[in-house]
Design goal:
Helix content: 40-55%
Number of strands: 11
Number of domains: 3
Order of helices and strands: HEHHEEEEEEEEEHHHEHH
Length: 319
């Protein structure tokens, strides 16, 4: 328990801070002056080479020092584009983050860190603060009812805390992908694929907006450690697994047929009732119970049948 508490406290201590920087154009002017002074010293040394030996001996080391310092200072220039950042370390310690866009100069012994990119070039180790998209691969999971389904999501995210993204996790992009898989499984098994018969509960297919918000909150809680903000998480693919897709399609078709038949019967009963009421109100014909029953039967057959009705003209009495 003590080790876990210590690790959590170490994560909390890593907070983003601004790196100490200077105007890049001013320092570039200083470096140019150093190289110019070194050239002047070398030239003066060549002039006094035949005359004063002491002046030559003094000017050469000065020129060498100016060239060396100027070369070292060249490693401190950083060009930051909008929505980009450098996470800098100095001899293994977090030095600060350079997020403001522009041309700057920092301690030349600082090194940029970006675990998501293994290149050694400093400019290639920038962190992008732009909104990025993660298309998660399809994976087979079980819904609330245990049915195997195929699901994938698309996540819109960005880095808000560069220090956590670099130092709290080994690779923030791989971490996000792994947590996305876990969040999908967690959310998918809490809801059915489709609504039940009563239709009063949320489902993966019928409640896309609500499920997207639940998924985003679940993923945001998991990615807080890595300093990542999840802007949006939506289901991009949802289908039954191939082994049960045919059976589920038949089930959906049967449910649709039953629902359609129910609507047809309700409409037919209403039309029969309206016909009987109209005949009674207009006093067109007086029908006893037996004739009403026959009329109701005929009307229901016509209105509820799948085929066109073929009328039969009766010439006799029903009695």
């Amino acid at each position: 328990m003590e080790n876990k508490q210590i690790q959590v406290r170490d994560f909390d201590r890593i907070t983003e801070k601004s790196a100490k920087k200077r105007n890049g154009w001013l320092m570039l002017f200083v470096v140019v002056l150093m190289f110019a002074a070194a050239v002047v010293c070398i030239a003066l040394g060549a002039v006094y080479a035949d005359g004063t030996e002491g002046a030559t001996i003094a000017l050469v080391p000065v020129a060498i020092c100016l060239l060396a310092v100027g070369a070292i200072f060249l490693g401190g220039f950083k060009l930051v584009q909008p929505n980009e950042a450098f996470v800098l370390t100095l001899f293994g310690k977090y030095y600060g983050t350079l997020k403001q866009d522009g041309f700057f100069w920092v301690n030349p012994f600082c090194s940029a860190v970006n675990p998501a990119r293994s290149t050694t070039a400093g400019f290639a180790r920038k962190l992008s603060l732009k909104a990025m998209t993660l298309n998660n691969d399809k994976q087979k999971v079980n819904d609330e009812e245990g049915n195997p389904i195929e699901i994938s999501v698309v996540v819109i995210w960005r880095i808000t805390n560069t220090a956590r993204a670099v130092f709290n996790v080994e690779n923030y992009m791989a971490y996000l992908s792994t947590q996305c898989d876990a969040a999908i499984r967690q959310v998918a098994r809490q809801y059915p694929y489709d609504v039940s018969d009563n239709g009063d509960e949320k489902s993966l297919r019928g409640s896309a907006q609500e499920i997207a918000e639940v998924l985003r909150e679940e993923l945001q809680e998991r990615c807080e450690l890595a300093g990542i903000e999840v802007l949006e998480a939506r289901i991009s693919h949802l289908a039954y697994a191939p082994e049960i897709a045919a059976a589920m399609l038949q089930r959906q078709q049967a449910s649709a047929i039953i629902a359609a038949r129910q609507k047809i019967v309700e409409g037919a009963v209403s039309m029969v009732q309206m016909a009987l009421n109209k005949l009674s109100e207009e006093q067109i014909v007086e029908l006893d119970d037996e004739r009403k029953a026959q009329m109701v039967s005929n009307l229901l057959v016509v209105l509820c049948g799948n085929r066109d009705a073929q009328p039969v003209v009766g010439t006799g009495s029903i009695y």
